[in-house]
Amino acid sequence: DTAVSQTPKYLVTQMGNDKSIKCEQNLGHDTMYWYKQDSKKFLKIMFSYNNKELIINETVPNRFSPKSPDKAHLNLHINSLELGDSAVYFCASRGPDTQYFGPGTRLTVL
Amino acid sequence: SQQGEEDPQALSIQEGENATMNCSYKTSINNLQWYRQNSGRGLVHLILIRSNEREKHSGRLRVTLDTSKKSSSLLITASRAADTASYFCATEASYNQGGKLIFGQGTELSVKP
User: Fold this and answer.
1) Smallest CA–CA separation between A11 and chain B, in Å?
2) Which of A62, A108, B42, B77 is most deeply buried (CB count within 10 A of its CB)?
3) How many CB pairs below 8 A link A and B?
4) What is the DSSP letter of B81?
5) What is the CATH number of domain B5-112?
6) Under an 8 A CB cutoff, do B44 and A101 touch?
7) Distance of alpha carbon B2 from alpha carbon B4, whole angstroms
8) pLDDT 10s per residue in chain B (113 long)?
9) Which of B31, B44, B103 is closest, CB to CB, to A43?
10) Would you state the torsion angle of the CA atoms of residues B14, B19, B25, B28, taken in this order, to the nearest 10 degrees?
11) Mean pLDDT of A68-93
12) Which among A31, A42, A45 has CB closest to B105?
């Protein structure tokens, strides 16, 4: 009965590769987000989707492409991975007042 | 940068003591929220205070909000070792920004048994 789930939990890959992170929420929420948390624990929003439509794109490089096949899923595809992409990526969905966060995906680019 | 600021960056106390964390932000807000993050885990919502509220309580948590100073504080009373975590404030802007949250830098709380 996990509310917001992400896969994989850990992702280790080489520079230049393409990878995807998946997120699913079973809360029935319309709005979902991707956040990036860097090594200093700074959390910053990347994208937001509302009912499969992109509503926020925080000047993220276009190597990052979110995709929402339906309102319960928001996936993140990253092309040509760079060292600076190493971080923890959190998916979240928005309830009436608060956001519910997934457990995070720790991406390490070597 | 829109990033909020929190202080202290790190706080170490003994079990049973109170812990106070402060947060400052830059924009007009709908609400301010506090989240906890245990090491290696996701964020857990603790409490929300709306822009027209000045104080809110939830169990051992007390949050205050001063919109004139654009600041908030989180007080954890009678702390326990299990309270050891990072604490983040996050603001939701009053203008329509799709509900995005702008986070503070976080305070790392260590509660020693």
Assistant:
1) 14
2) B42
3) 55
4) G
5) 2.60.40.10
6) yes
7) 6
8) 556 788 899 999 999 999 999 999 998 899 999 999 999 889 999 999 999 999 999 999 999 999 999 999 999 999 999 999 999 999 988 766 778 889 999 999 999 99
9) B103
10) 160
11) 95
12) A42
